[in-house]
Amino acid sequence: MNNWLPKSALCFKSYTKRMFVSDLLAGITVGLVALPLAMAFAIASGVPPQTGLYCAIVAGFAISALGGSSTQIGGPTGAFVVVVFGIVAKHGVDGLFMCTLMAGVILLILGATGLGTAVKFIPRPVVVGFTNGIAVIIASTQIKDFFGLKIDKVPGEFAARILTYVHNFSSFSPLETTLAVGALVVIILFMIFVKRVPGYIVALFVGTAAVVVFKLPVETIGTRFGGIPSGFPKLMIPHFRVDLLRPLISPAITVAMLGAIESLMSAVVSDRMSGDKHNPNVELVGQGVANILSPLFGGLPATGAIARTATNIRSGAKTPVAGIIHALTLLAIILFAAPLARFIPLSVLAAILLVVSYNMGEWREIPELFKQSRFEIVAWLVTFLLTVFADLTVAVEAGMILAVLVFIRKVTQTTTVSEATTEYIREGHVHILQHKEIPAYVSIFRIHGPFLFGATDKIDAIVNRLPDLPPIIILRLRNMTAIDSTGLQALENFADRVHESGRQLILCGAREQPAMRMHEAEFHEHVGEENICGSVAEALDRAKSMYPEASKQRPAGVTWGRRSTDVSPSTPALAVATSSTSGPEK
To answer: What are the residues facing 508 on neighbouring strands?
Structure first.
């Protein structure tokens, strides 16, 4: 039964006053951080700023109360800006609310049926491609407000938008540009030198104070939207239009998929920072309920927010109570301080969104992708270009088709026909495990079959056992027939986790395709060139030479030599080798 309980219900079994104080401080902090972001995402999406705030309050509360992550913060994010802007432009606000409701139902079904893990079948190049594209589009939509350009209507298409900026750049406002640049500098300086204080909050309050004190003639939330209404978000049943059901199916699937990807990625970040373990299906159920409730109160689509989740944890959050307090903090702001919001300058919000778009872009992934096969590079590039110049829904569909074709090609390349010659048998002796003694300070795991997107989570079978494993782990790749960029990233993360635990990792026996991909990706930087061996015999010799030093790094309370022949049936791609290995191993 506990498998379907939200983390908020589980945390109260051992909740303390000290934990509440930590959650209270973290919740207030992340609530203040969410204030400018929620308004900025709404404005960038083509809707009034209160729409983003209502989403952060209603959906943020639901995600923390009903989700499967202890420290996840939910609300509007940059991932939705592009698709929301398109839906509003084509179908109006009623179309947006209908689409969000439909996406919420899809997420609810994914979580309730246990299909939430299906998002792992979206390969890394496609995810990076549309994330890069979304970041570029968000940044492009903020140029008008950043420079205070006098443009009546900004085109929805990227190329036309840029041309409009170029033709009208002479109308820029020196005052608004100075305010935006100042906000940008403040945010960057705080990110570098005062990391514990969110620069977004400082930039927002300093910029707003400057407008009020010096009565600066700049465009604000008040001049464009008339301010933000005070009071509780009101229940508003969207106008249901049957004629929009069919055209909204594709955008609703896109919103649901983006919500699932973002929330589960954010939950993984939360796990790594907090040491917790999220429940993906319960998390998607919570996300589904949140996206059903949000439009009923006039809110945007919602998902897990990686940056706000990280801020939450760094601020001391222990349980979902922090996320609930974050939502209540925003509610208190619109109840008691909404009139002050009309002074917030749009140029400052534009500066904040430029930083957000840069941070969400995952630009560091691009050099790594260029080390992969040309097919994966093409999948990334097509997804990126279609996201920017066409439509996010089309981009994801095209990226997935390309990914499937790449997957089929990689799998078919692993099929070989060869003769078992005397030389082949002789050369195989160094790879087999029979007649080799595996010392107590070593555990050997092996991967069988292609290690491609969709299968990479099976490496968790080792990660979950790390506290009980000896100081040296050998990962045998003799039977791993192929690897892609998603698999490489999983191995890199695994290597880092092993080293963080105070253990050493040796890889051995990689075949031609995996060996080539690992070399191109400079995988040796994660384990050391000397720890990538040609065979299991060579790996055992390397372990023998490493043991005296590795044994000194033994974590407290761990006894080396605990061996197990147990392998979970849910992870068929992984097996553990022990000193009692039986049966032929090649």
So the answer is: 476, 533
